[in-house]
């Protein structure tokens, strides 16, 4: 096996934490001696031990504490992200790696946090450990796309979702939008819900559609273990929503609700209010969500809300379900942002995934200009 | 091998005629005796021998004329389309099958021409030949989708093509539309051009874009043999086009040009004019094109022309290239047909194919309501 293979294995291990570590990154670690894996681990859950520590534990379990220590001494450590060098929920991993006298640390990427970026590597080098940075860099960045975004932009990773006709319409003139996409597409969208920490809709949509904003899939459908609870994102409303019969479903569950608005909203029990003085509070609202550990959100509409984000180029991912119908003249445009000056100058998104659900298609784009 | 396998083989043989038989259907034929193929053939080119005749020839070539006749007597014939029963360019195949004393004729579909539909089968039955209809019916209909359309609707098979942004815009407000789709998408669209008998654009597009309307791919790129000429469709203009410096490229080649218009157009040498009294002459124009053996057309725009076809529900296929950009407010809608009364009642197209070219996607839809 080669360097690349060990790093690829670390990435696979990291993915096992996908549903449990946000807002932390997914991290996997492989300890290698004489070209053989002697220990492996991953960050299992937010607040729990880091991947490096779990890999050492795994080695001890395999070989016993004493032999493990001898084996780890002089070994190579493969980890997709720079080892942590600060004490937060757990002691810094750099200390542990130094203590165990690791020979070489191979990282996929540096920590994206500007105040940390390279700090762990510096500490390791100072202690005489060899380091190598950037192995499978793209794959490691892609793996932790959410984490990298939150660290660099200090806001949640933002996914916009829309269901439209092939002519780019989100609703008829009278507002009717149920159901443009088919039931398989709608079911798929619950998978996206299950992967984010919050679902955001505008006040108007909340009042008109009375959405539950819950993940309505079973543990089995989500690929979870039988007894694992289905993750339910925080419900986030943009605008001064009042509780009423129109919004019954939204307030029905036990999930946390956050309302961000300019106007002070009428307070409801168990709802957190974030009130802003400026009319244009969207950037600030996003920062405040991240401070509440909401590291990823899915913006589900309606049209005005989607375009508030598009207009500010405030999104990292765009998911469109396109139904095979033409809604024609006078129907509502999904997107109504300002036209570019020329086609050449129009920023382009990056196509990431193309799927079909019956006659609907689903396109997933990244926004490289966010 | 089973009935299904022999018919599937006949379909594969039929496909070999794809580029050469329009407006005729593609037909393949397999002659089977004691579960073994003793002859096979296909319709190779418009005006040439039919598949059944070529299959008999193939049998004779294999076994010699005398032995072939003995073998064919009592054999089964698999053919994707009902054998012809009228003398047109060639003698009717039904006669030949009767002469050779075929035992059983297995057809995928009847001839869609209402005045023939079942006539050949009737003749065969009367002569004591067993018949079976409908084996791999869907596949056989799909194979000859163009032929079935021309026979049933008495107009060419109509493909609409557009390149749009993800928000369904075909151009900026000022008309700029070069280049929304990328070069790979544009290259792919030349493959579609190569498969139709005519390319249609509106007068305005012809004048504004000065398109050549030619297939700009090599024989090799088209999968043709080295010495095969690249097929060049007839150029068709909707509206009273004048020859000018603005339309230089259009008139540059040696391809036939047909102009259909209400106003009498200023006559140009080598151009055929179809003039109509009614303002709404599109249906009539299409019929006249088919009478000129133009069995399939690709409508490339512009926006008004596309919508003339969409508005009349006059299309069999819609091909959309969608580029990963948002052209936003004020840009021109690709489609501007009348909105449906409700989403439920909105007719839906059928997704046939989903492809990507770099970050562009290509969606191919059939129109089941045409």
Structure characterization notes:
2 copies of one chain form a homodimer. In chain A, strand 3, helix 4 and strand 4 (104-109) form a beta-alpha-beta unit. Helix content of chain A is 28%, strand content 25%. Chain A has 11 helices and 16 strands. The longest helix of chain A has 13 residues, at 3-15. The first copy, chain A, is elongated and about 70 Å long. The first copy, chain A, has helices at residues 3-15, 51-63, 65-72, 93-99, 119-126, 137-143, 145-153, 183-194, 203-209, 282-291, 303-311, and strands at 28-33, 36-42, 76-81, 104-109, 130-133, 157-165, 169-171, 198-202, 234-238, 257-261, 271-275, 296-301, 317-323, 332-333, 350-357, 360-366. Chain A has 370 residues and is of the alpha/beta class. Chains A and B meet through strand 13, strand 15 and strand 16 of A and strand 13, strand 15 and strand 16 of B.
